[in-house]
Amino acid sequence: MEKAVRRIGVFTSGGDAPGMNAAIRAVVRTSLHMGIECVGIRRGYHGLINGDFTKLTFESVSDLSRRGGTMLYSARSEEFKTPAGQERAVATCKMLGLDALVGIGGDGTFSGLLCLAKRGLSVVGIPGTIDNDIACSSYTIGYDTACNTALESIDKLRDTMQSHERCSVVEVMGHRAGHLALTVGVACGATAVIVPEHPVDYEADLLEPIRRARLAGRTHFMIIVAEGVEGGAYSIGKVIEEATALDTRVTVLGHIQRGGSPSSRDRITATYMGYEAVRLLAEGKTCRVVALQGENYVDYDITEALQMTKSLDQHTYEVMRALTGVH
Ligand SMILES: Nc1ncnc2c1ncn2[C@@H]1O[C@H](COP(=O)(O)OP(=O)(O)OP(=O)(O)O)[C@@H](O)[C@H]1O
Ligand SMILES: O=P(O)(O)OC[C@H]1O[C@](O)(CO)[C@@H](O)[C@@H]1O
Ligand SMILES: [Mg+2]
């Protein structure tokens, strides 16, 4: 017989991402619709360890979908990685009478959920990270908004780079992955895009595209670098200045990419994923990650999901090479 879920705890963890609030709202409203109570755990695993919670009602999540950040706050907790920290987290769940947990975050958050599943809790993860680096899902909440935010800033940079005939080197986030950099690079019409997944050949991937653009009449250049590239944007900027004598400026976009009102894609994906997470728990499932595959919402076992690897989208990479003239 299925174990009935009566009270779910929901939390956000790791780097925040636009759309996390919409996911919280969906978890709360779906739970209530199914006759399940919902408790918000604040500050991720840190809050779970310390019993930092807030009761969530239908009204408390009103007007939330359009808001950036996360109403439950987010945190990274070293203590939770220890057995003692995990025991305290389980004790909090018992004290609050939580049958199940929904964790919204990235791969680290899912590793944490797996530890709790092994300690007997029912858990489901929702991929929320601007990095889009969750292997089992073609999309993670926050990615689209982060791409748009980066693009908006890059468009502004272009204006001043054009006026001063400069070379702009822009570093975008992504942790160790280049998904964000590649998409942004293609969308902004970059002169070159440098990602950690491919070892950089300075001549072929960076300097030749700049020279070719100059020969074609261009006087300003836009180079997109993923933060995971060794040395980051500053080392790339140095290479360009030394080899070309172009007046070069480096901009690290940083945390601005994590903020802002979520795009329609992020609100909708977050809402469906929140709904799916509660549906899975209500059906008695546990240790699952909600994922998007094409147009379909599916779910994976967390252990399996964490073992999967995600490479850069090869087609997008080929398109980028074609458009920047790299052979
Ligand atoms: N191997 C692990 N075992 C137990 N808990 C973990 C593990 N890895 C991470 N966590 C917990 O999950 C939290 C969030 O992980 P992390 O900082 O890697 O962010 P994330 O969820 O991957 O999100 P993002 O990468 O988008 O910032 C950590 O602070 C820690 O408390
Ligand atoms: O907010 P923090 O702790 O500086 O973390 C930054 C990291 O988090 C992310 O924004 C999301 O994982 C990464 O792109 C970046 O490397
Ligand atoms: Mg991560």
UniProtKB/TrEMBL annotation:
<keyword id="KW-0547">Nucleotide-binding</keyword>
<comment type="subunit">
    <text>Homotetramer.</text>
</comment>
<dbReference type="GO" id="GO:0042802">
    <property type="term" value="F:identical protein binding"/>
</dbReference>
<feature type="binding site">
    <location>
        <begin position="25"/>
        <end position="29"/>
    </location>
    <ligand>
        <name>ADP</name>
    </ligand>
</feature>
<dbReference type="InterPro" id="IPR012828">
    <property type="entry name" value="PFKA_ATP_prok"/>
</dbReference>
<keyword id="KW-0418">Kinase</keyword>
<dbReference type="GO" id="GO:0016208">
    <property type="term" value="F:AMP binding"/>
</dbReference>
<comment type="similarity">
    <text>Belongs to the phosphofructokinase type A (PFKA) family. ATP-dependent PFK group I subfamily. Prokaryotic clade 'B1' sub-subfamily.</text>
</comment>
<dbReference type="InterPro" id="IPR022953">
    <property type="entry name" value="ATP_PFK"/>
</dbReference>
<dbReference type="GO" id="GO:0046872">
    <property type="term" value="F:metal ion binding"/>
</dbReference>
<dbReference type="InterPro" id="IPR035966">
    <property type="entry name" value="PKF_sf"/>
</dbReference>
<feature type="binding site" description="in other chain">
    <location>
        <position position="227"/>
    </location>
    <ligand>
        <name>substrate</name>
    </ligand>
</feature>
<dbReference type="GO" id="GO:0006002">
    <property type="term" value="P:fructose 6-phosphate metabolic process"/>
</dbReference>
<feature type="binding site">
    <location>
        <position position="107"/>
    </location>
    <ligand>
        <name>Mg(2+)</name>
    </ligand>
</feature>
<keyword id="KW-0460">Magnesium</keyword>
<comment type="pathway">
    <text>Carbohydrate degradation; glycolysis; D-glyceraldehyde 3-phosphate and glycerone phosphate from D-glucose: step 3/4.</text>
</comment>
<keyword id="KW-0808">Transferase</keyword>
<dbReference type="GO" id="GO:0061621">
    <property type="term" value="P:canonical glycolysis"/>
</dbReference>
<dbReference type="InterPro" id="IPR012003">
    <property type="entry name" value="ATP_PFK_prok-type"/>
</dbReference>
<dbReference type="InterPro" id="IPR000023">
    <property type="entry name" value="Phosphofructokinase_dom"/>
</dbReference>
<feature type="binding site">
    <location>
        <position position="166"/>
    </location>
    <ligand>
        <name>substrate</name>
    </ligand>
</feature>
<comment type="function">
    <text>Catalyzes the phosphorylation of D-fructose 6-phosphate to fructose 1,6-bisphosphate by ATP, the first committing step of glycolysis.</text>
</comment>
<feature type="domain" description="Phosphofructokinase">
    <location>
        <begin position="7"/>
        <end position="281"/>
    </location>
</feature>
<keyword id="KW-0479">Metal-binding</keyword>
<feature type="binding site">
    <location>
        <begin position="106"/>
        <end position="109"/>
    </location>
    <ligand>
        <name>ATP</name>
    </ligand>
</feature>
<feature type="binding site" description="in other chain">
    <location>
        <begin position="129"/>
        <end position="131"/>
    </location>
    <ligand>
        <name>substrate</name>
    </ligand>
</feature>
<keyword id="KW-0067">ATP-binding</keyword>
<feature type="binding site" description="in other chain">
    <location>
        <position position="158"/>
    </location>
    <ligand>
        <name>ADP</name>
    </ligand>
</feature>
<feature type="binding site" description="in other chain">
    <location>
        <begin position="173"/>
        <end position="175"/>
    </location>
    <ligand>
        <name>substrate</name>
    </ligand>
</feature>
<dbReference type="GO" id="GO:0005524">
    <property type="term" value="F:ATP binding"/>
</dbReference>
<feature type="binding site" description="in other chain">
    <location>
        <begin position="255"/>
        <end position="258"/>
    </location>
    <ligand>
        <name>substrate</name>
    </ligand>
</feature>
<dbReference type="InterPro" id="IPR015912">
    <property type="entry name" value="Phosphofructokinase_CS"/>
</dbReference>
<dbReference type="GO" id="GO:0003872">
    <property type="term" value="F:6-phosphofructokinase activity"/>
</dbReference>
<keyword id="KW-0963">Cytoplasm</keyword>
<feature type="active site" description="Proton acceptor">
    <location>
        <position position="131"/>
    </location>
</feature>
<feature type="binding site">
    <location>
        <position position="15"/>
    </location>
    <ligand>
        <name>ATP</name>
    </ligand>
</feature>
<feature type="binding site">
    <location>
        <position position="249"/>
    </location>
    <ligand>
        <name>substrate</name>
    </ligand>
</feature>
<feature type="binding site">
    <location>
        <begin position="76"/>
        <end position="77"/>
    </location>
    <ligand>
        <name>ATP</name>
    </ligand>
</feature>
<dbReference type="GO" id="GO:0048029">
    <property type="term" value="F:monosaccharide binding"/>
</dbReference>
<dbReference type="GO" id="GO:0070095">
    <property type="term" value="F:fructose-6-phosphate binding"/>
</dbReference>
<keyword id="KW-0324">Glycolysis</keyword>
<dbReference type="GO" id="GO:0030388">
    <property type="term" value="P:fructose 1,6-bisphosphate metabolic process"/>
</dbReference>
